[in-house]
Design a protein that fits this description.
Layout (H helix, E strand, L loop, with lengths): L28 H4 L13 E2 L11 H13 L11 H13 L8 E4 L2 H12 L5 E6 L4 H8 L3 E6 L1 E2 L4 E2 L2 H7 L4 E7 L11 H14 L2 E5 L21 H4 L2 E4 L2 H4 L7 E4 L6 H4 L12 H13 L1 H24 L4 E2 L7 E5 L8 H7 L2 E2 L1 E2 L8 E5 L4 H14 L2
Parallel strand pairs: 1-13, 3-4, 3-7, 7-8, 8-9
Antiparallel strand pairs: 2-10, 5-6, 9-10, 11-12, 12-15, 14-15
Helix pairs in contact: 2-11, 3-11, 4-5, 12-14, 13-14
This protein binds pyridoxal-5'-phosphate.
């Protein structure tokens, strides 16, 4: 099915990525989802849904964790002195972007950061705008915070997904107070262009809308282009924006619950976590240790990971081409493949995948009915098996 001579395939053999320890029985959300399910012919479901990786974290991160464990004391921990500078150095080195470490605040998750921003900077019943399809918490969190969710579909063009600015202007109301940007975007893997970011900033400034930009995927841009943080624009809307970042996707440490908010003003820090009404814990010391090591020392591993993911996207592309009715736009970022199954005539693509032993994410949860999302961050052997099952699903 695939060209074994492909030189980009060599990365699959790298011991860093060739295998993954068995995650079953560790409480891994991804593997527990279908732990008791079997296909009609008795096979387990191969999970390719939740966005974590079936790969070990980099040795540099594991070493930092070992060292922090050896310290032996794990009391309540605020941002350690090296945390914000490590992020600032990473942002400067990798994204060419200067941030003020005084504006950084550790947060136990990007999703938590979205909820905190809503509670801190909008009022009950205000609308929070987002572009669909989108990572499901963007759809559910406004309601959980007593706000309303306003959704504007992205337009699918020949080569990319784009913001539909006409639809945006028609949708906005005086109650629209916040825009949750996902940049790069989950699930489509699209990256907003500089021009598009500028137009979003104009729109936000014109309507008095605060932008919160979830840039958790910024370190996984596959096409070699430079990430442009929304807050780095020279624009009044960018000066007011909140940026949410984390090392969790890139270095596979989501379970360590460490993210960061980059606030527009250090004075906002004192009100940040308290806006969670006592429900938001501090970040934990192991999360901090892993985050700092990832930002400081994780880049060589990240570069190799990008090579693996580019190879994996090639494999996905070949498979999609082979299956009549499937289409996709190759993602410019993320390790996620967002596959349009509407041309297959299969009414419920998620059910078809599961029946073939493939545990995809159902597009429906992303406001993208008829699509499935495949997580490609795993050893190549596992991805090849997943793609074989994708064939079976639509045979
Ligand atoms: C766009 C986006 N934001 C946030 C998250 C989750 O972040 P956290 O685990 O830090 O809450 C994900 C996870 O897939 C994501 O894709």
């Amino acid at each position: 099915m695939h060209d074994e001579a492909d030189p980009s395939a060599a990365i699959s053999e790298d011991p860093l990525f060739a295998t993954c320890p068995d995650r079953r029985g560790t409480g891994a959300e991804k593997w527990d989802q279908w732990a008791d399910a079997r296909t009609a012919d008795g096979r387990e479901i191969l999970p390719v849904w939740v966005a974590d990786m079936d790969l070990r974290s980099p040795p540099e991160v594991l070493e930092a964790l070992h060292a922090r464990v050896d310290h032996g004391v794990f009391g309540y921990t605020a941002d350690p002195p090296g945390f914000a500078p490590a992020l600032a150095d990473h942002m400067a080195r990798v994204h060419g972007c200067a941030i003020d470490p005084a504006c950084v605040v550790g947060t136990p998750g990007v999703v938590t950061g979205l909820g905190l921003a809503a509670r801190l900077l909008t009022e009950p019943d205000d609308e929070i705008l987002t572009f669909t399809p989108i990572y499901p918490p963007f759809l559910s969190l406004p309601k959980a915070a007593g706000r309303r969710s306003l959704r504007v579909p992205l337009a699918r063009r020949e080569q990319t997904w784009e913001v539909d600015f006409d639809a945006l202007e028609q949708a906005v109301t005086p109650k629209t107070k916040m825009l949750w940007l996902c940049h790069p975007q989950n699930p489509t893997g699209m990256v907003h262009s500089r021009e598009e970011l500028g137009r979003i900033a104009d729109f936000a400034a014109r309507h008095g809308i605060r932008v919160v930009s979830d840039e958790i995927w910024a370190d996984l841009i596959l096409d070699g282009s430079q990430h442009m943080p929304f807050a780095s624009l020279d624009h009044p809307a960018a000066k007011d924006a909140i940026t949410l970042v984390a090392p969790s996707k890139t270095w596979n440490i989501a379970g360590l619950d460490c993210a960061a908010a980059i606030l527009p003003d250090p004075a906002m820090k004192a009100r940040w976590r308290p806006s969670g009404g006592g429900l938001v814990p501090m970040v934990n010391p192991l999360g901090y240790a892993a985050a700092e090591a990832a930002w400081r020392y994780g880049d060589p591993w990240r570069q190799k990971l990008l090579a693996l993911l580019r190879h994996h996207m090639q494999l996905v592309g070949e498979t999609v081409e082979e299956i009549p009715g499937l289409t996709w736009l190759p993602p410019r970022a993320t390790y996620l493949a967002w596959i349009d199954c509407r041309g297959t005539g299969v009414e419920n693509p998620q059910a078809a995948c599961e029946a073939a032993g493939l545990g995809t994410s159902d597009g429906q949860g992303f406001a993208g009915a008829g699509f499935v999302r495949i997580n490609t961050a795993c050893p190549t052997t596992m991805l090849v098996e997943a793609l074989r099952r994708l064939h079976d699903a639509f045979a």
